[in-house]
Amino acid sequence: MDTTLTPCTWKHGKRWAYTVTYDEAMAELFDYTVPVHEELGIPGHVEVVVGHMGKVRQIGQSSYNGYHHMDAGQLRQLIALGWGVGSHSWSHGVVAENLDLEVRQAKQVLEDAIGCRVVTYVAPGDNSNMIPPVIEALQAAGYLSALSVTDDINPPDCNLWFLNRSANLHRGWGPLFSAFDPYHRLEQARAQSAWVVDYCHCPTPHIPHESKDVYIHEHRARLEAIVRLGGNEVWPATVEEIVDYVLCRRHVRIEPVTGDTGEPSFRLSLPDLPAPVTYRHLTVDIQIPPPLRRCPQIIVSGRAQPALLVERSVARLTLDLAQPVMLAVTAAGQ
Ligand SMILES: [Zn+2]
After folding, report:
1. Which member of 60, 194, 203, 275 lies 3.0 to 4.6 Å from 153 by CB, making a disulfide possible if both were Cys?
2. Strand order in the sheet with 253-258
3. Rg (alpha carbons) of the chain, rounded to whole number
């Protein structure tokens, strides 16, 4: 049996992945929602209307008018808690009408405000802000993904420029009305090793728009369902962590090479990886042949470490591929 090396679908070898997005990045999230995240140990992700940062909401006929958009300090506070931040455009209007402002400047201003990269775009309004000219402008400006307003899961080979989001809502609106389900799409995601990105706004005890949001007791039930059903199989992470991982998995090049003493060896690198990718980690499963299963060890760029066997014949390892890596499999003390 040969030694083989396979990238895992999700980081840490998890079976499926989960993110929850909060469009508009309301300061009111701190009242009820952030404490639930802290209690359960799950990061969140807020989507900022960049031209309205720190202002009282007053956008058209929005049901959230009167709420407060977070300011830079509040966004940095969330980042310190492990959360992610994306752009929800500059004005929450028609993005294609001013691509430079809504896409490029929005990214730059938000990056300056929060002190870290902005590579996630979340379409304001509906999917009319996901049309090709918008996607092309996002790609040119250095974003890495775009999130739509379509209720579905994201399979491992998902389109990063049209990611789906799962309806985490008190009720869906006609013609097919629907009611809240804390398990919505979770078994489907588990079965298909997919990524669930929840859509909601600002869960509290009183929500102004029941088809755009959930009550806080429902949202707690949702996050508890992630923890209970997901157990050790789910990877809860920000959009940026997951998109970076998907790009590393898609770009990795694995070349078998012959080691100095004939042991199974590989060279791993990330050619043509988009520059904005920051987290360059990849989890791999290594099939260990029987002769090496007695005290197996993995040598990464010259440094030996005992192998973590997650199954009888499978060692699992997360590698930092910021630079190309040489990996060899041996048995210690032969
Ligand atoms: Zn919005």
Report:
1. 194
2. 253-258, 264-269, 325-331, 296-300, 303-306
3. 22
Environment of ion ligand 1 (residues, CB < 5 A): 23, 124
Residue 27: how many CB atoms within 10 A of its CB?
18
* Distance from the alpha carbon of residue 285 to the mean position of ligand 1, in angstroms: 40
Q: Topology of 15-239 in CATH?
A: TIM Barrel (3.20.20)
* 124 Cα to the center of ligand 1, angstroms: 4
Q: What is the dihedral of CA 210, 211, 212, 216, to 10 degrees?
A: 40
Ligand 1 centroid to 11 CA: how many Å? 30
Q: Which amino acid is at 1?
A: M
| Percent of the chain with pLDDT strictly greater than 70 | 99
In this predicted model, what pLDDT tens digit does every residue of 22-53 receive, in sequence order?
A: 999 999 999 999 999 999 999 999 999 999 99
pLDDT score at 334: 58
Q: What does DSSP assign to residue 40?
A: H
Mean pLDDT of the chain: 96
Q: What φ, ψ does residue 299 adopt, rounded to 5°?
A: -110, 115
From ligand 1's centre to the CA of 246, what distance in Å? 26
Q: What distance in angstroms lies between residue 327's CA and the mean position of ligand 1's atoms?
A: 46
- Residue 296 pLDDT: 93
CA of 125 to the centre of ligand 1 (A): 5
Rounded to the nearest whole angstrom, what is the distance from the C-alpha of residue 88 to the centroid of ligand 1? 7
Indicate the pairing of strand 325-331 with strand 264-269. antiparallel
Q: How far is the CA of 276 from the centre of ligand 1 (A)?
A: 25
Cα(72) to ligand 1 centroid in Å equals: 18
CA of 24 to the centre of ligand 1 (A): 5
**Beta carbons within 10 angstroms of residue 300's beta carbon:** 15
Domain boundaries, the chain: 15-239, 252-331
pLDDT classification of 291: cutoffs 50, 70, 90: confident
Q: Which residues contact 175 (CB under 8 A, 6 or more apart)?
A: none
| Residue that has been written with the tokens 């049309």 in this structure | 131
**What DSSP state is assigned to residue 120?**
E
